[in-house]
């Protein structure tokens, strides 16, 4: 069996940035499960895994456009400190949810000055080329329920 649309894939992975720093890994944990063809993982990795079989090892370098996108400068904004009403201490790295015309957006504080705070609404990995090492552990047909929900369910079924 190979990885095609509507297959549930279990895989071990390590992802690094181009400097070689490990960003995330499944090492020491259960394999990651996802359903192929349903945008459960970044497009570039899904494309790299298409047609692979259990036991295959895949190395893939994924450019930003096929990962988390390029950095969108309009998502980096300077806002007044008063926008954080009720928050006494603001520090770089803190996450908040902001309301936008398109709905809620997660932002991270990147700079704090006296009365101004810079926030970034880009995904933390936007603009980065990612290097994946993947081992395909198992492939199975998705259930009707998984296909209807658009994602894989873990052992014992529905877990959300």
Element layout with pairings:
Blueprint: E1 7-17, E2 22-25, E3 32-35, H1 43-49, E4 57-62, E5 76-80, E6 95-100, E7 103-112, E8 116-120, E9 130-141, H2 144-149
Antiparallel strand pairs: 1-2, 1-3, 1-9, 4-9, 5-8, 6-7, 7-8
How would you describe this structure to a colleague?
- The chain is mainly beta and 160 residues long.
- The protein has two domains: 86 residues, Chitinase A, domain 3; 48 residues, Thrombin, subunit H, CATH 2.40.10.
- The protein is 8% helix and 39% strand.
- The chain is built from two helices and nine strands, in the order βββαββββββα.
- Strands 1, 2, 3, 4 and 9 form a five-stranded antiparallel beta sheet that branches. A four-stranded antiparallel beta sheet has the order 5-8-7-6, with no helix packed on it.
- The longest helix has 7 residues.
- The protein is elongated, with a radius of gyration of 19 Å.
- The chain starts with 6 loop residues before the first strand and ends in an 11-residue tail after the last helix.
- The mean pLDDT is 92.
- Its EC number is 5.2.1.8.
- Its main location: cytoplasm.
- It catalyses: [protein]-peptidylproline (omega=180) = [protein]-peptidylproline (omega=0).
- It is found in: Cytoplasm.
- Also involved in hydrogenase metallocenter assembly, probably by participating in the nickel insertion step. This function in hydrogenase biosynthesis requires chaperone activity and the presence of the metal-binding domain, but not PPIase activity.
């Amino acid at each position: 069996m190979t990885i095609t649309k509507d297959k549930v894939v279990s895989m071990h992975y390590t992802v690094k940035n181009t400097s070689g720093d490990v960003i995330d890994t499944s090492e020491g944990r259960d394999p990651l499960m996802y359903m192929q063809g349903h945008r459960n993982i970044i497009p570039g990795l899904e494309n790299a895994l298409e047609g692979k079989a259990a036991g295959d090892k895949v190395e893939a370098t994924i450019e930003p456009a096929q990962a988390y996108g390029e950095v969108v400068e309009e998502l980096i904004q300077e806002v007044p400190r008063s926008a954080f009403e009720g928050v006494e201490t603001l520090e770089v790295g803190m996450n908040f949810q902001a309301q936008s015309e398109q709905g809620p957006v997660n932002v991270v504080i990147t700079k704090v000055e006296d009365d101004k705070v810079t926030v970034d609404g880009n995904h933390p990995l936007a603009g980065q080329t990612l290097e994946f090492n993947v081992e395909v552990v198992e492939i199975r047909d998705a259930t009707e329920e998984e296909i209807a929900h658009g994602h894989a369910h873990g052992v014992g079924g529905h877990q959300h």
